[in-house]
Design brief:
The complex is a heterodimer of chains A (312) and B (291).
Chain A (H helix, E strand, L loop, with lengths): L3 H9 L1 H41 L1 E2 L9 E2 L3 H7 L5 H31 L5 H13 L2 H12 L4 H8 L11 H29 L3 H9 L4 H12 L1 H17 L2 H7 L11 H10 L4 H33 L1
Antiparallel strand pairs in A: 1-2
Chain B lengths: L7 H25 L22 H9 L2 H32 L5 H11 L4 H13 L23 H4 L6 H12 L3 H9 L4 H12 L1 H16 L3 H7 L8 H7 L6 H38 L2
Helix pairs in contact in B: 2-13, 3-7, 3-10, 4-7, 8-9, 10-13, 12-13
Classes of the chains: A mainly alpha (312), B mainly alpha (291).
Amino acid sequence: MTTAVSRVGAVAAPARRLGKLHREGRAAYLFLAPALLFFCVFLILPFIFAIVLAFSDWGGFDLGTLKWSGIGNFREVLSFDGTFVKPILVNTLLFAFGSVFLATFGSVLVAYCIDRLAFQGFWRVLYFLPVVATVVAIGNVWKMMYQPAGLINGVLNKLGVNSVGFLSDASYALPSVTVVHAWASIGGAVLILTAGLKAIPEMYYEAAEVDGANAWHLFWSITLPLLRPALLFVLITQFIGGLQSFALIIVMTGDGGPVNATNVAAFEMYQRAFKYGAWGTASAMAMVLFVIILAITLLQLWIARRRGEETS
Amino acid sequence: MKRRGRFPWFAYLVVVLGGVAMVMPFLDMVMSSFKGPGEYGVIPYRLLPSSFGLDNYREAFSQLELPRLFRNSVIVTVSVTVSVLITSALAGYALAKLRFRGRAVIFRFILATMMLPPFLLLIPTFLIMLNWPLAGGNDILGRGGDGGLTTSLLALILPFTVSGFGIFLMRQFMVSLPDEMLEAAKIDGANQWQTWRLIVLPQTKPVAITLGLITFIGTWNEYIWTLLISSSDPSLQTLPVGIQLLQSFLDPDRTMPIVMAGLVISTLPVLVVFLLFQKYYVRGVVLSGLK
């Protein structure tokens, strides 16, 4: 970073250079001021507040009535007699793992196939459409398609299969919303994986082909290993998204029903807080979910690093 | 390229079948928005409506109060997008090109802000808005009032005015701007503000379009926070929330087609903007993924 001007300054007058750096520092903090102020008010303050709330007992809006309650909220939330661990946390994990599995599998397949076609831009935009649409549109359209008189049951009936109560039957409801979440998140993953595919040098494929590898070999021993960084990013972001998303569930099932069948942790937190005003319990739930997200993210990074060391 | 010539029929099959699965819901949305009374919710299912009349669209305009929802959506989306662009360009410049104590720490802090999931801050942020000092009748300590900031559109704007991701994106782009250009400006007597405003800002156009587009689409489609804030004051509803919540006031047999008409109208602006600038959007997503 030593530039012509500052070098001249350094020779002529070190004191003036210091003053200049000082001025640059002041300017920098002025440029940063809006962002830093924002993060103080809308990030650090709420984060501390969230931690305090998780450890306290507070129902109203008057801070004076806030009482410290230690780990009481966590004991209540994590008790196996309640609904939070089972079915809600279990649902959350099933929803996240299910949609991540479907979306990752689907996006690898689609990205790999698109990479071999003409009009790649067109196809990618097509798969990206759901990312652009509001969750209200996605949720309502799928809710409509899942109805007894909807598109999917219409097709099933044509094939001679009886109608399925996708959202009304407790055993189908969670898989049904999971599929929609996966459907909506394939497009973003396809874009990132495509960038990863494009970064793989063509000569690797050519060399393998000379050695007589078929398409399947090429995919397993070249594409997949070299796609690992992009794949890891997709997995991590999809997990983070899947574990915390509940807008789709509000739109499609309204209350996480039938009987908690589609209720997930972030939604339960939302309801406890804003329907019942139980700030403490709700904040404890948020903390538990936050820790789970952190743990799963770190676990993925750890596995990826270990695998990387093994192969290299 | 050679590898694309092999087994294209399999690739075509996968991509076209998947593509149908991607488009069918949107096609069903558009078709249902034209279905008249007695046409929707009938077994056996039929995709096509009997006619393409605009009754549902007219209904959506009057019953859903679309103009009001549209106005709120535009105000919130434009304010957030402009603010994110300006604050990101300011902070990104400082982090990329200025030397000062604490730069590394602040940059790491900005990266860390992206790790905090929004749901964790939902409850405290709501309570902060509610107890905002000197707003909505609150006193200087944020007490006593009736709703604080939650009764104003500002509640939908303020918590989104700065984006850690935006700062990161701008910083990454500005790092690659040549230092000589900035030094030349300094020699010509420009101060930091003038350098930023006249030299740096015009250069950031491509990344600004990317960031603007991502922010625009995200804000236009934002649901949870708006649902929460507008639950006590329906006049603050934006398009997604208004369309979702007003369903219950409509005649059940006629509801879905009208809702679908509303959704078509609310999706169109984003779709048009996306298609116009999709190259930039795609690049932004890729940039964010493979830094």
